[in-house]
Amino acid sequence: MLIKDLARLIPYLSSLRWRYAGGALFLLLTNAFALLIPWFMKLAVEALQHPQSARFSPTTCALGIALLAAMHCITRIFSRTLILNAARIIEFRIRNDLFQHLTRLDIGYFSSSRSGDILSRFSNDLTNVRMLAGFGAMSIINTLLVYSAAVTLMIRIHPWLTFWAIFPFPLMVLVVKKVSHRLFQRSLQAQEELAHLSSQAEETVSAVRLIKSYCREEYFQNEFAKTAGRYLKQNLRLARLRGIIIPVMAIATGSGTLIVLFMGGRLVIEGIITLGDFVAFSGYLAMLVWPTAVLGWILTLAQRGAASMSRLSAILGAKATVVDHPDARDINALQNKIEARDLRFSYGGANVISGVSFHVQAGESVGITGEVGCGKTTILRLIARLLPVTEGMLFVDGRDINTISRASLRKLIGYVPQETFLFSRTVADNISYGISGELVTDTIRNAAAQAGFLNDVESFPDKFETPVGEGGVTLSGGQKQRLAIARAVAGDPQILLFDDPLSAVDAGREEEILNELGKFYSGRTVLIVSQRISAFRDCQRILVLKSGVIVEQGTPTDLIQRGGLYAEICRKQQQDRDVVGE
Predict the structure, then answer these.
(1) Is the pTM higher than 0.90?
(2) Comparing C-alpha atoms, which of 189, 184, 281, 202 is closest to residue 242?
(3) Is 140 in the same domain as 219?
(4) Same domain, yes or no: 552 and 507
């Protein structure tokens, strides 16, 4: 599981192999200077014992040690800089890849994923991967170099003493291996709980006004405390497991030191090794203490990194269901019509559209109405290719919509979704969001006027430069909808898809907006989904849906004369207006 989850890191590591190679080279130099220090200490001790036969004086040895220490520090800085910077670059690239992949995924993916969980993966999980690619990789390289060099030099001094000094280390490795799988599972569980905590915090902050209006502060405080408690519990379980590893490390290194003191002391007394050899040997063993102790930390980093990479891979491995056909071609204009032939669609196992057939001529305005959940919004999403369309069901100018590139199709479309979303920027930025190229003030102003939003903007303190706040918090529901309409028409699209665009607008303002939009409709293909019949004032035809099928279609006058479902909807809405008028 560990290797499989970390395999996705290999391409990122390979792209920076020269940085890691340079870091490894400087680590090699760092350890070379560090390994020479005990040898110079050996020479210094021997020089003090036998000054006449010594090759170097104690002063020379001391200066050599000082020089080696300085070089050790310099090369250490370069090794850390190269490897840790490489880890930062990997974090940057993975974050970019994650974001780009998220923007390519369909709305179906986001409907089943919590935004707080996704944000947690962008922050906490990426941090764990960076730590593994940085400190983890550096520690692994350093441990391999230190062990291979120090043990070799220790064997040169006395093989059997080396054997007994490092004998406890394999036992330590066996214990660590036993707990590694459980460490991975608990790391993954801790990350999942952190994602739940982040998601709950994000949802609570987003819904703070609703929470306060219902006086539910205490309830959400308790819910957050429960989630935080579960996160604490998982981290404490993880800490207890990690706590097993550290004492094992200490026992292994401590045992090696005791063995050297006992056996090495006897070897010095018996004259088998010199006092200088004993000092050098002890120095090399001391150099093994930190790499051995850090093995547990490396293991923790590896397990956390693998758990985090597993969660990141879940996003990177997600497949978009709406993709361009291999031979998809661009479309520059709608010249003929949009046609649905026995169009069907289902969410999971629930059928939403069951065999719908209709056509919309270029330049025609068509209204779509019907009961809640009958598939009106789904039809607009299918035309905009926000949802996957089965081949042979939806055509634009006689071409299967799947053979048209999504980018070129969507450039023709101005879409106002049912759920209005605004960016935390200025009014002008939100209106010009869909405009490519240099911003034109007149275009933004005209779009606001066509949406019946210009008078509101003129009343704002900074006019078009007024920030709308997060999610448009400073605007009313009607203002949000009108700004969304302005954003849709600003790009001068050939096809307009309006999903209940006037639901939050009062009757007086609705008339103003419809008058302006009526002028803009000229020569454009318009589909309007609405429950309010008044929104269809400028529509040539109406489609009436019920339970995912079209039960009526025709001009507004014809439908009223037939006395069917559309006529019943008109009658009820007229009664409601009469009651309000009274």
Answers:
(1) no
(2) 184
(3) yes
(4) yes
How far apart CA 92 and CA 184 sit, in angstroms, is 25
Is there a contact between 136 and 302 (Cβ–Cβ < 8 Å)? Answer: yes
How distant is the alpha carbon of residue 62 from its chain centre? 54
- 197 shares its domain with 268: yes
For residues 555 and 542, the answer to whether their CB atoms sit within 8 Å is: yes
Q: What is the pLDDT of residue 475?
A: 76
| CA-CA-CA-CA dihedral for 570, 573, 575, 577, to nearest 10 | -130
Q: Do 389 and 527 share a structural domain?
A: yes
pLDDT < 70: residue spans in the chain:
1-5, 46, 49-56, 116, 173-181, 184, 188, 206, 209-210, 213-214, 245-246, 249-250, 253, 293, 296-297, 434, 436-440, 470-471, 504-509, 575-582
Domains of the chain: total: 3
- Same-domain status, 487 and 499: no
Tally Cβ neighbours within 10 Å of residue 181: 12
Say what the pLDDT of residue 506 is: 66
Output the pLDDT for position 203: 72
Residue pLDDT, tens place only, 354-394: 888 888 888 888 888 888 778 888 888 888 888 888 888 88
Cα end-to-end distance, the chain, whole Å: 71
Residues 382 and 406 placed together within one structural domain of the fold: yes
Q: Which domain holds residue 173?
A: 2-316
CATH number at residue 336: 3.40.50.300
Domain boundary among 447, 477, 492: 492
Do 91 and 226 sit in the same domain of this protein? yes
Contact status, residue 337 vs residue 397, Cβ threshold 8 Å: yes
CB atoms within 10 A of CB 109: 16
Q: Categorise residue 301: left if φ over 0, alpha if ψ from -120 to 50, beta otherwise.
A: alpha
Q: Measuring CA to CA, which residue among 324, 384, 380 is closest to residue 356?
A: 380
| Per-residue confidence (pLDDT) for residue 580, from 0 to 100 | 47
| Residue at which a domain ends, from 316, 337, 353 | 316
442 and 429 in a common domain: yes
